[in-house]
Every structure is written in C-alpha cells, then in structure tokens.
Design a protein that fits this description.
Elements: H1 3-10, H2 16-24, E1 36-37, E2 48-49, E3 55-60, E4 66-72, E5 76-85, E6 97-103, E7 109-116, E8 126-132, E9 145-153, E10 166-176, E11 203-204, E12 215-216, E13 220-226, E14 231-238, E15 243-250, E16 261-270, E17 276-284, E18 289-292, H3 309-313, E19 318-326, H4 330-334, E20 339-348, H5 371-379, H6 385-399, H7 405-421
Parallel strand pairs: 1-3, 2-4, 11-13, 12-14
Antiparallel strand pairs: 3-10, 4-9, 5-8, 5-10, 6-7, 6-9, 13-20, 14-19, 15-18, 15-20, 16-17, 16-19
Helix pairs in contact: 1-7, 2-6
C-alpha cells in the first residue's frame, strides 16, 4: 500500500485541493504550484496574454488548436514551452504528442516544434518549444508587436490516439541581447566522441514528478526505481563551456516474466527553457540494457546559429533536464512492479564565461547553473523533498489525531518498506 493510499483512507474529509496535492506526491505529474490558470482561445482574436517569466496551466482539447497572445519588444528573444500531460490510463498514437508554433500578426510562422510519444506509444508528459528570435539570419518576427502562440495535438486522429482533453503547463522565458556582438556561426569543432559512461558505486536519488520538482544530479552514478507508465524528472547544472552526457540502464527483472518491449525506456534531454535537445530509447527483455544520449557540444551562446537542432538547443547554461519514462507495456510481460534504473551522468569540459547581457533574463536565474542545485547535488538532497514532506504533513494535520489505527498501521508498513529499499546508499 502506498502512503498516498493510506492518507486517503485514514484522513476523512480531506479538502479537494489538498487531496490532489497529496496524490501528486507519487506517480502523477507535479504542476508548478504557482502557475496561473488560463484558457486557450479557439480564435486568435480572443487569445489571452502570456507574460514573460510566468508559468501557466491550461487545457488542450482532443482536436484543434488553442491560441495565446504575446506582446513583445524588439530587443529580446522569447521562448515558450508547452508541456502536454495526458491523463492517466489514456491511450496513445505513435506520432501523437504536442505541436507548438509562434506566428506574427499576419499569420507568418516565426518557429514551430513537435515532440511525440515515440515508438512505444506510451502516453507521458512531453514538451515542445518555440522561440521568437531576433537574429540577422531571420527576416521575420523582429519587430515589437503582438504575436500568437498556437498549441495543438500532433496526431489526434492517429490509431490509438487518446480521445481525452490533456492538461498543459506553459512557460515563458525572455533572453536579452548580449552587450557585445559575438560569433554569428556555431563552433565548427567540438569533442564529438562518445564519452565512456561514468563508473563507480551508484548512489540513491529519487526522481521528481515534474520539471519544477526535478531532482538535481551532478556527475556520478545514480540509482532509482521506475514503474511501468511512470515518468521521472532530474536536472543537471551545466555551465558555459561544459558538456553533458548521460547513459540510462534498466536492471534485470526479478519478476520471472519473459518477452520483449521495444523502446521500453525513453530518456529525453531538455534545455533550461524546456527545449527538447535529444532522446534515446532502450528495448527491454528482462535482462539489463543500456543506451546513451548522442554526443552533444559544450554549452555556448553561438550554438544557436547551428543548422543542427541538437547543437542549436545547447545555447545557454542552466539546468538541463533528464526525463525518463518506462512504457506501460512493460507491465504486460514483467509485471507492474518497479524496474531498477541507473543513470550515469558526466559533466566535462572547461568552464567559460557566458555572454554579458544588456538587461536581465526573465526569470533572472534561468540561465545560471545555480549554486542551490550544486549544493543539493553535493549534499545528496532531492529537489522537491521539502515540498513533498510539507504536503504529507499537511494531510496528516488536516485529518487530526483521531484518524484511526488504519493510518498508523499503514504508515508503519510504508516506513519499514522505505527502509528496506534504502539499506545500501543514502536516499534523499
């Protein structure tokens, strides 16, 4: 029995908001608690304005686009990311996912991006990003004006596509221009050799349930467990001039099941504005399997000028997100129990100075490999732990002391199970 189930059973009359928060501690996507709720418009004429530096929650209908509005100046690059979250238990088409575009007032496209669920057709949170970029390479979308962001399903009519509405998390980031004009082409040479995966003893680190609760990881070997249908979020601080690489390993199954699930594990890398960088899939037959992200360049401002989308996405320092999803189909052959997951993360290269901006990015710390993340990595503390503990304690407080012996027994069983899972290395 999970702690969430114990809380729901033993705390009668829990308010709806706190019940949802307690349930969100485990397994579901953790939306930004500070996000404002907005509704996407069916016409650009009715589009609600999105302010830069803010996070919003919205809804994506089963078919058709929804529109949002931006009021932009003529000096800053602005990034918008849409994280689509299908409901639990829904179905998925292989090339379904989320498509985002940004257009000017005349309907001309500034940028477009699509991210899909992939070969496993297992529904999970996916994010796509677009940029209104002021660049000598672009003739459109430079002016201070009104722009429109459009979000829609990638393949709502595909075989097995979900008929349900999805939840959306929208984020907006503003990047000012640099004080000095630098290179206008991407670096033509970088270390593109595949690095050896990091070796050593794995340390326990529990993944978060969303981008805002992503667990900080540094260079090293990290161990977690992942269940079929679950998505785990981690973040790696990567400074200017540094390279990041990652290998994901699924451990052998203890269920005794047989079979083969292609693309059972999907691992995606997103940049600090939730822009998709690269991904890798791992098939699973019950034996240990591993796959690595493709080699990526060091973080450099000039990478944005590269024609290759993976290189262009490595354009700023900050927290890069590793998102691991285990396909629901794994449960059909190997049961719904957790599968061991090991992440081998390497951060190499020589630290460099980044650009000196004219003004501040919004949010101000988005392009900084923050000291708080480095400290969390060093201390072995997972991001979001305090928030999760607060949610659980709030639920207990609301229920009061007289919640009955079922709650106490359930908590005791859950605590003992947690201790058994964390005997070897320390788990945050």
């Amino acid at each position: 029995m999970t702690l969430t189930a114990v809380l729901m059973m033993g705390v009668p009359g829990l308010p709806a908001g706190q019940e949802a928060a307690a349930a969100g501690v485990f397994g579901t996507y953790a939306f930004d608690e500070g996000a404002s709720r907005v509704e996407g418009a069916l016409s650009t004429a009715d589009a609600v304005r999105l302010e830069t530096g803010r996070t919003y929650r919205s809804t994506l209908p089963p078919s058709g686009p929804v529109h949002y509005r931006l009021e932009l100046d003529d000096t800053s690059d602005v990034y918008v990311a849409a994280t689509a979250v299908p409901p639990g238990g829904s179905s998925a088409a292989v090339i379904d996912g989320v498509k985002v575009s940004v257009q000017d007032g005349d309907g001309r496209s500034c940028d477009v991006d699509t991210v899909t669920f992939g070969a496993a057709a297992s529904p999970h949170p996916v994010a796509a990003w677009v940029v209104r970029e002021i660049s000598p390479r672009r003739s459109l979308c430079k002016d201070a004006a009104t722009y429109y962001v459009t979000v829609e399903r990638a393949d709502p009519d595909g075989k097995g596509a979900s008929p349900d509405a999805w939840e959306l998390e929208l984020t907006t980031v503003s990047e000012p221009r640099p004080a000095q004009t630098g290179a206008t082409t991407a670096p033509d040479t970088w270390n593109s050799a595949s690095p050896d995966p990091v070796a050593g003893e794995a340390r326990r680190r529990a993944g978060g349930a969303g981008f805002t609760e992503a667990t900080p990881l540094g260079e090293g070997v990290w161990r977690d467990d992942i269940r079929p249908g679950q998505t785990l979020f981690y973040k790696v601080p990567v400074g200017w001039g540094r390279q990041v690489s990652a290998t994901a390993e699924l451990g052998s199954s203890s269920s005794g099941g047989t079979g083969f699930v292609p693309a059972a594990l999907d691992m995606d890398l997103y940049n600090p504005v939730r822009g998709h960088v690269a991904d890798v899939g791992t098939g699973y037959d019950g034996r240990q399997k591993s796959s690595s992200l493709p080699p990526l360049p060091h973080v450099a401002y000039a990478n944005r000028h590269a024609p290759n989308s993976q290189v262009a996405a490595m354009r700023f320092a900050g927290s890069y997100y590793l998102v691991a999803h285990l396909a629901e189909k794994v449960a059909e052959d190997f049961g719904d129990g957790p599968v061991p997951l090991t992440l081998r993360v390497r951060v190499s290269g020589t630290a460099q100075d980044g650009p000196r901006y004219v003004g501040e990015p919004v949010p101000s710390d988005v392009f900084a490999a923050g000291e708080q993340d480095h400290e969390a990595v060093a201390d072995g503390q997972a991001a979001g732990r305090a928030a999760n503990d607060d949610t659980v304690m709030t639920a207990l407080a609301v229920g009061g002391i007289g919640t009955g012996s079922a709650l106490l027994v359930g908590l005791g069983v859950w605590t003992m199970a947690a201790r058994r899972r964390t005997v070897s290395p320390d788990r945050p």
